[in-house]
Structures are given as C-alpha cells and as structure tokens.
Amino acid sequence: MILRQIRIRPIVFLAIVAVILDILLVRVFFSDAVNVEDGSVLTIEASVKSMEVKTVAGEEVLAVTVEDISDVDLEAKSVLCYFPIETKLKIGQRIRARGSVALFQHATNPGQFDYADYNFHKGVSFAMFECRLLAVGNHYSGLRQGLYEIRLRGEGILVKYLSSEDAAIMKAMLFGNKGEIDSETKELFTKNGIAHILAISGLHISFLAMSLYKLLRKFGIKLRISAIISEIFIILYGVMVGFPISAFRAIFMFSLFLASRTIKRSYDMLTAMSLSLIILIISYPPRLFDTGLIMSFLAVLGVGFFGDSYLRNIWKVPDFLQSIFISVWILLCTLPVMAVSYYEVPIYSLALNLLVIPLMSLLLTCGVILVICPISSVVTARIIGLILYSYKGACAYLENSGIGRINIGAPDTAQVVVYYFLLVLAVWWPLIHIRFNVIGSLRRNIVTGMIVVLALFLFCVRPCRGLDVYMLDVGQGDCMVIRNDNKNVYIIDGGSSSVKKVGEYRIIPCLKWMGVNEIEAVFITHPDSDHMNGLIELLTKQRKEALTVKRVYIFAGAMGAEEYDELSMLCRNSNVELLGIGRGDVLADGELKFGVLSPGTGGHVNTIGMRSLGTNLDTTSNNASLVMYIKYKDFDMLTTGDVEDEGEKDILRSGILDEYISNDKSSDNKCIDVLKVAHHGSSGSSSLSFLREIKPEVSLISVGARNQYGHPHEETLERLEAVGGEILRTDELGCIKFTITPSGEMKKEGYRCSVGL
C-alpha cells in the first residue's frame, strides 16, 4: 500500500528524500555562526528587503530587514536593522548603514526559547541597533514599494477605525504585520491553540483567492480569465505581505489548483504540498526546522492524507461532522510540534477552533470591506470588534479557569517517530482490510481507534527513573529544580538580578519542558530578589501556566518579616501553604530527604518554629539563608543559599553537619558529592575551614556572565581548587543537570555541551 501511494505520487517521494537529506546534512553545511562580535559597531551595504514598525523598549522604531549584503566575509544571509521611526526608505534600495551588533542568543536552559535558532531558520543572521544611514541609492523596486504603500494605507485605515489592540490583530491577519501585537494577546492566542489565525495561512489565502475567483465567475467571466486574474491578485498579495512560509505554501498550492482547473487536469493536494516543500527546502535548507513551516505542512497532511482517508474510505463521516473530523486529525498531526515547541496542550482547543474558524470568514470579509470601503466603518468596525472580543473573552475565560490544559513536557525523538508510525498505521491498516474485506467494519473501526489511543498514550508517557537535579542558568541568581522517582518536583530558590522576567522566560519554561503540572514544595533560602523574584512570578502565574504549587518553605525565624509580605499575600490568595522550617527539620519523600542544617539556635532541634539564630544576626540576612543537606540513596548534596563565613561557622559549631555526613561517609574523609557554592562564589563565603570539612567532589556556581560583582571571586575559586573536586559554572555551561540512576550512578551534563561532563 505504501509503495503504491509513492508510485502514484513521485513528487511526494522526492519530498520525503529531500526532507531526510536536509535533516542529515543541514547542520554539516550550514552554521548560524557569523564572524562579527556581539556589541561591535559595524558598517554594511545591502538591499532593503522589508520594513515594519515595531516597539522596542517602549519606543517605536523602523525594523528593516536587509539582504544581498556586499561584504562577502560577513557570511550573513539577511540582517535585521533598527532605525529611528522617522527614517525614510524604499523597498529594494541599496543602503549603507552603521549600527551596534546584537547577536541572537542561544537558549541556556531546557525549555527556554532559542532566539538564535529561531532567526537562523528564518535566515536572519543578527540584528543591528541604533542604526543610522550613511548612504541611500536612488533605485528601488517600484512594484514592491507600491504594494508596501498600499499595505501602509490599509493599516492606517485599521488604526483609524479600530481600537489599537484590534487594529494590531487585524494587521497581522490581513497584512502579516505581527510586530505590533502586544505580548499578552499573542500569548493568550498561542496558549489556547488559536495562534494560527494571526498568521497568513491557507485559511486566509483560500478565503481571499476563492472569494475573488467565485465572484468573477458569478459575473460571467470565463473560467480561464477568472483563474488568471485570481492568480495575479494572490501573487501580488503574497509579495505585499512578504511571502511568509505558510502564505507561500498556500499561494503555491492554490496556484496549482487554479492551473489544474484551467487545463482540466486533476488536482492532488499532497503532490502540490510536496512540490512547495521541495522549493522551500532548496531555496534555504535550514528553513525545514522552522516551527511555522512544520506546523503548516503537518496541518495540510492532516487534511489531505489522514482526514481525507477517514472521510472517504474508513468511517464514511456524515457531512455535518466532517469539519470536526478534519480538526481532530489536524490536532493529532500537529500535536508533537506543539509538545516540542510549547510543552503544553490545550485540550479544549478543538472545541475553541470550532467557534473561531467559522467566524474567520466573516472577520476577514469585514476586514477587507473596511480597508477597501472605509465608508462602511460603522458596521464593519463594530462586527470586527465583537468577533475579536468573543475570541479574547473565550481564551481569557478558559485560561483563567485553569482547566483543560496540561503540560505534557517535551517528548524524545523515539516517541515522536513511534507516534507518527502508529498514526500512519491507523490509516493504512484499515485501507488494506477494506480492499481485501478481511474483517467487518465495526471491528476495523474499533481496532483503528485503539491504535490512535495507543499512539497518544505512548507519546504522552514521561518515564522518570532515579533523581534529576537541574541547576538552571538564571544569570546572576539561583534556581535549582529537583525531581525524584515519584515524579514529585521541588524547587530551591528562583530569582535573578540580571535577567528580566526570569520566571516567565526561564523557570516556568523549564518546568513545562519537564512536563510538570504540580510542584510539591518550594524552598526560599532568603528573601533577596535574586533568589525569589522568579518564584513570585511562578506563584502569580500558577493558574495561567497550569502549574500548582502545594507549599512554600522559608526560615521560621523570618515568618512575618516585611521582606516576605508579597510572598505571604500570594500564598494566601492562591491557597498555597507557607511554612517555616529551621535546623533539625527533615522532609522525606521516599528515598529523597531534605535536612535543614541552618539557621537555628546553634543546637540540634526537632521542631518547626525557630525564631532566632545562634547569633544576633538579622533573620533575613545572608547568614540566615536556609542551608540544606539533600540525600538520595548514596548521593548527597549541600545547598547553601547566600550563607557567609559567620553562618558557616555557626553550622560547624552546631555539630549537625557531622550528624548528617557521618551516617554514610567516613569521618576521616568526609565528602559531599555536590556543593551548591554559596553567594555565587563571593569571597565572603565558602571559607577554607568549611570546605575542608565537606570536601565536595563537584562544586556548582550559579553566576551571571560578566556580572558587575566580579563573581565568582578568584579567592573562592582558589579555595575550591585547594580542596580538590570539579568546578562547574552556569555562565560557562548553561543549565547543569545531574542524573542519579536507580543503581546510584551519577551522570552530569551542561546544556551548552553536546556530551556529558
């Protein structure tokens, strides 16, 4: 059956070969590295490819993408240049510009958005800020500039008659300008599975082109002339919006459809899709890894192969249910991409799309009428506002309800391969049986449904064996995430003084990547912002991100301190337990144990509720940091917050360290497997006497690259080297992960490394 499908569709076979070769070879022959330094001042000569207005740091700028760069040593395909908003340029002009280079940064944590890869797949090598023109050519593309000015006039009409938020959404839908949509709206649509309406896709192209084609036919214009006019219109529209990938695919396929109608030949959706994919890959091979391209083509595959096979051959779906079945197969086909890209699935997105998609035709119709005929603004603007209000209202309600969305985590490659294999089997298996009439239709349908359910089950399973410890790269701050073999998750600190919105952009994405829906406990060692501000974000966004925090622990002596006022309020409002702990307290979860070494009164106690330190130190100071001994089987680790020399002496005087370590280590040669070095490697912490007492095999330093404090200090590094062991730093390795296998073997790796450490 497979060979027969390939034999009658040779272009599909060529597309499969092209994809395989691209996957195998693109990383060998293409690199995102450019021979220019971050922050350097650069002068380039290039041609203007596209322009749009964007808001950067609260200021409107003109974002200009340039190509055909004359400096061959630069090896850049295209560059994004930010000019002052008043800059006057035309599409196709040759310009010479000077600006400050900003290289796109790779992700340093699992789950973190990778700006470098995102732009590399789109062919943008780097950005230049604070650009100024040095020279401008006289020649430009009259056609492209004329279309650009038409687009600007259309966008101006939208701004005039719609609210700023609605105008930004309609600009994205009609003209492909997504630069003005605020991040909250974009996130709202993305999280609820309807972000596709913001991209110019097959839905938009088919509506615009087919509407024109049918209108011309109704006026009695001949088929061939109607097809030619529609074709010219849709190609010019593609040029105007810059031919984004989804639009190119849709326009190309629509062109082949019109051509087939004109020459009276059959049209095959899969062949048209495959030919457009081959063209895109040949023009720029790294584009294959673009998420938008993958989603676009998988959606067509869900319609053209899986959905069509079910509608016509397997379940004989009634007409009124066909849209539901097609939507189901689109969701099934794109599920792995959603999991790999967003790590979550809004289960209700299917039902939401059944509301959204039927209204899209009316929304686009009103948008086109408003742009072409502003005199209709009273009616059309009102309808647009009501539809977008219903979209945003439905999304906000579902998001705030916290139901119907789960974090499934990132699947591994084997799971994706098995998932798609079973989906294909679910379609081809019944087709074979229909051909040979082996079993009845009812049994065939039951088995087919069971195969789909099996595919979903195997895809969503996230086995967890042993213990995983992640020291996240949060810049100048601390955050450690621990998951045990019971799949319970614990967080120790979470904040940064150098990364903005560290919770939203680094901590929460990592949790979602792991497939976390519930956090057993959060430990905050002390209330400095570089240990807590990301956790404040997490508590604020619990419902929105489908993450539930069960309890938060702080030093009992600091309960009621004003530094924890915001934390206390958030815990009360979200029904999260806020508990105090002190020296001697032990929390156990199976073989995973957390023992509190400090702060305390200087002696071993067994009760929660300590209110003072052994000295007269402030209960929220660095020396009042929670110091914890973590044990799992034969693995042990010490986390120290920002404790300084005096706090370390208090731990040694108390004798509690001996009580924990001597149970498993030789008292003559005490050794901790892993030490989280205190205070980012400050010279005031990690005294030699303390280090000699614990002798860490591995020392972890959480520190921001090129931080203003000079962390880690040379004195601290020298002391760590003096007691031996390995020193690992987040500014060099990114996120550092430890895996303790069920047999007790410890494996470690850095996110920036291709192999283990």
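the 2nd protein, sequnce then structure:
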Amino acid sequence: YFGNCFVPSYQTAISACPEYKNIPQYILQGSWSSPVTNKLLLEAGGTITPQDFHGYRRPGVSETQFSINDPTVPAGMPTTWGSSATGYGYNRSDQTNYRASASYVTGSHSFKAGFTLMHAWRYNTQEPNNSVTLSVRGTQPFSLTQYATPIQFHETLKYNMGIFAQDQWRINRFTVNYGVRVDFLNARVDEQNIAAGPFTPARNFDAVENVPNWKDVDPRVGVAWDLFGDGKTAVKASVGRYVVGAAYEIARPANPVQSSVNTVTRTWAPPAGVVYNGTYNPYDDCDLFNPAANSKRPGQIACGAITNPAFGQVTARTTNYDPNIINGWHVRPNNWEGQISIQREIAPRVSAYAAYTRRWFGNLTATRNQAVTNADFSPYCVPVPVDSRLDNGGGYQQCGLYDVNRIITPNNLIFNSNDIGGIDDVFDGFGFDVNARLARNTIVSGGVSFGRERISYCNLKDDLSLTTTGFGVNTPRTDDYCNIRPPFLAQVKGQVAYPLPWWDINTSATFQSLSGVQLSANYPLTNALVQPSLGRPFTGVPPTVDLLPSGTMYGDRIYQTDFRISKAIRSGGTVIRPTFSVYNLFNANPVQTYNTNYGSAWLSPTVIMQARFWDIGVQVDF
C-alpha cells in the first residue's frame, strides 16, 4: 500500500489522490550448486518477480467524478479536486533473472565463466474518469481536456545479458585478475492492439524492434603486487570498461502510442443564462465527439474546436534517435575506470591506504534540433541584480543567451556527441585512510577523500541547434557555463569502537564531514527585463536562467557525530543486546536544501539536518 499520491501536496485534494497498492508483488527464487570435484563448482539460479502498483480511486470517488482544476483558488487551498487526472491505471511489470557459472580452482588459478540474463516486460495505462478533465476559474467553466483513451503502453526488455570469463592468477608476488564480459541489451515496443474509445477508433500498431540493440565487449584487468614480499605492502592497479544500465529509456519514446496525440484541449464557456453551482458536466453542454466548435443549445457555443485535429493519431516524433547510437557494437554509453593504490602496514594491526581513481565517460549524446539554424535565434543579455552573494557582487550583464525568432515544432535528433568533437566528462578522486585494530578489540578508522567531476560542453557552444542534458536549454553559451571545473571537495569520515573494560559494554561513535550541496540561482525572466537587449518580447514563455555556473557555489558543510552504547547479556545459548543510540550528538543544524529560485527568498533554508534524537533497541540471538 503506497498511500495517497507519491508526493502529497496541499495543492491536491485527497479525493484527487489515487491510492497505490501492489496487486500482487511476488518473488519466486531458486538456486542450485554442485561441487563436482574439489576443483570444479557448478552454480545456477533464477528469480521471477511479477509486480503491479495499481492506481485506484479512493473510496467514495465514483468512476464518473470529473477531475477539476482551478489555478485561481486562494493560497493554501487545493487547486485540483474531484478525482485524479492520470493517476488511475496499471503499472504492471514482470521480470525474470537467470544466472549460471562454472568455477575451476587450481593452486595458482581461480577461473570462472558464466552468464547472467534478465528478461522483463511492462504494461502501463492511464484511465482518467470520463476521458475528460475540467478547468474552471472560480465557479465558471473555462476549458477542458479530452483523452484518447484507452491509453496504454506495452514494451519488452527482450534480454539484458552478460557472458563473462575471468581468472585470478598468482605468480610469485603478483596476483593478476583479468577477465572479459560481453554485454547484450535488446528492447522492443510490442505489437499493440488498442480497442476503440469514446473519442477514437480502434488502433493497431506493429512491433518496433531493436530500440536499442546494443553489444559491447568490456575487458577488465587488475594486479596486486606484494612489493617487498613480506605481506606488509601491497601496490594495486586496475582498469575496466563498464556500460550504462538501461531498460526502456529508448523503447518508450519509440512507442507509437507515445507519439500519438493523446490529449487535446478546447475552450468550454458556459451557455448564456446557465448558472453553475459547482456541479459540472460538459457532456450536457456540447457534443465532445464533434471536433469542431459546437453547442447542444442552439445559437450558443459551449465548446470550441479541439486544439489538434490529429487527436488520437500518430504524428511525427519530435525526438528521434540516430540509428548509429541504438544499434551495433560499442555504441552504448559507457565509462572506463582506472585506479592505482598502495596499502601499507605501518605498525602491527595498523594500516594506511592511499588511492587515485579516474573515471571517464564515452558515447555521451547530444541533441540537434533539425528545425532550426543559428539564423533562427536572436542574442540577448540579462541585467544581473546587484547582490553580494553573486559573482563579483552582481550588477553586470549576463550574455550568451538566445531566443528563437519564431514558433517552431521541434525535430530533435539524438546522436553521439563524438560526431561533433565529443563531450568531455572525467572524474578524478583521491582517497586516504588509516585503519587500526588495537588492544582490547578497539577499532579506529578514518580518512579523507577529494574528488571532482569536470565536464566540457564547449563543442556544443557555437551551434545553437545543439543541446544536451545540463547545457544549452536556457543556459548561457559562454566558457563559464560550458567548461565546468568545480573545486576538489573533501569528504571526511571516521569511526571508533571501544569495548569498556567492565560489564560487557561496547561503545562506538562515527563522525562525518561532507561537502554542502551545489547551489543555483534560478532567475525567472520577463519581457520587460530583456526587451531593451532583445529588442522584442520573447517568442514563447519567458525562460528561467541560472545566474550561477555549475560548480561555483556550495551550501553549508555537513558535520554529524553519532554515538551508540550496547551491552551483551548472555544466558545459555541466548545473547540479548540492548542498545542506546544518539544521532547528531552535538545538535548540528547545517542547511541541507535551499530555495534556489532567485528573489527575496533565495537561499532560504528549506530543510536542515534533523535535530539530535535517540532510540532504544534490542537484538536477541538464540
């Protein structure tokens, strides 16, 4: 039972919150192993998981109750009530996982080969009451939305499979681990036969195959070197290739139901002389099955024409994928990771560790809007307010922004950014820690790590048709915004466990100091603000821009100390361990999230660390 709405809000009345329930959620799992000899081990297993977190109407909400929205209600009152607009319906999925392997171990080798396989499908529906939702202003009808129900999506992950072979080889003071994994991922949009609905005829869609069809060979190798042969100093190095986890991210955009015009709006004005008292039924006022403006009351237009005559039909997708990134070998987004480290025993039962890690990402995608060129844009600048918290105190012009000159229908093509020079995305990290196991079972450990992810989108900067996640959509096309170089941020963590010398009492404490969250200053623009620079109003809705380049401003560091004390009480074969824990021992109150909308409330705290609290628990082992 998920409760009412995923994120309850005062803007949504309880009646408009669906009840989400699992009906059912089963897990059936089995495994098998057989030590054929003292060197050969065979293993296999499988898991089946059917799920459906279904959206239901709340008790008392009928199937004919409209969902009604009024954005003009007073602050603090719900803007949506009656029923849920799109929360009812199936969220059904079935997943099966299989694995099998064979391990062969000799004196110097430990070899293992096998495979993993996942198969899954999902089925989603949207079932708004009456296939219509209503918008009002005060008590007066304003507009309505019609849905091309039945709306349903069916996609299948045919296989997400990995075939691997690996070996560990001990050679004198070296231990070498090497292996290779071949990854396959294939998804499709299933054939869909959708029954006729109130406003649409029956629809039939053929299957869409290979969305995507990825194949990758991923090598990995690591070596550990006992530097002096005394088992006290180990130097390790490794490098490996890894692919992005994925399932339906491409199949859903390729689904023809997704590309269909599933909703349209139309004006809905009350006929003259009709008084509404909060009970609405547009079916009484006009013929919703007629796409043209009409009224059931002669001489009065109650409903305007629908906004899109292609209602219920498949239209050209506004977003398409370059075939070269969804089919073939080594086209899947991936990353390489390399690490070198040294671990040294500096005293009996005390060791120190240092490491450097680099991770670099490949096959990152960009989006080209093929409906525009640079000639379709006009540049403008934003006068940044004077504010000591902004770069150089504000009061300057933020340029590098562009507004399209005309209303366009996007024709987006997602492609490999390597075709235009690539997007550089590299993480560098350094880690240092010390671990000590001292007398009387005392354990002390702690360390510090520094890391940053640096990204360059500058190959996209000068072509205004290009965008990617994080850059190019209402983002200044300047070096400050395309070449992100945040500082190295430190994370400090430590822990100590100390058994007291009496009464079998154990104590422990942890400390952490974490970098604060990255901050932004989302500045909503107006026509009046930029018209002196742009020379005209915005073509569409005025955008919101971030006055802070990424990685330039961070919030409070987070300091937290936790403490626990426990006692073991033994009786025969039973051990009872009562515990008392105190979290945020020093009652620190760093801000964890901020209001990032630039204005009078910018950087006001929205969440601070939870105040000091404690709990009591007990563990019984028998």
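The chain has a mean pLDDT of 93. Helices lie at 251-254, 323-326, 479-482, 527-534.
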